[in-house]
Backbone:
């Protein structure tokens, strides 16, 4: 799926003419759309928002010469042994 997304981004000129700052703004836009969908309990909007944010993140990673999978693996390795507790519905790591 990552390759299909990057092929699409290349075809649309995003990888050639886009910028990381532009992708960051796009990510913010998609975040607000996802936030609205969550608040409205709009299931289709939630799926669309998470998907759209993932597309933007895949493109952003590529702009830095990284793969989305590589970034996920790095993040997992950072959190896998993390200790903490749940507070108000959010995991808070021990310091």
Residues:
């Amino acid at each position: 799926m990552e390759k299909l997304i990057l092929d699409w981004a290349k075809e649309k000129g995003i990888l050639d003419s886009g910028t990381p700052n532009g992708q960051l703004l796009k990510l913010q836009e998609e975040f607000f759309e996802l936030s609205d969908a969550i608040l409205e309990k709009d299931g289709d909007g939630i799926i669309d928002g998470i998907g759209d944010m993932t597309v933007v993140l895949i493109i952003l990673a590529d702009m830095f010469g990284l793969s989305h999978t590589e970034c996920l693996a790095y993040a997992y390795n950072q959190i896998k042994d993390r200790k903490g507790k749940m507070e108000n519905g959010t995991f808070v790591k021990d310091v």
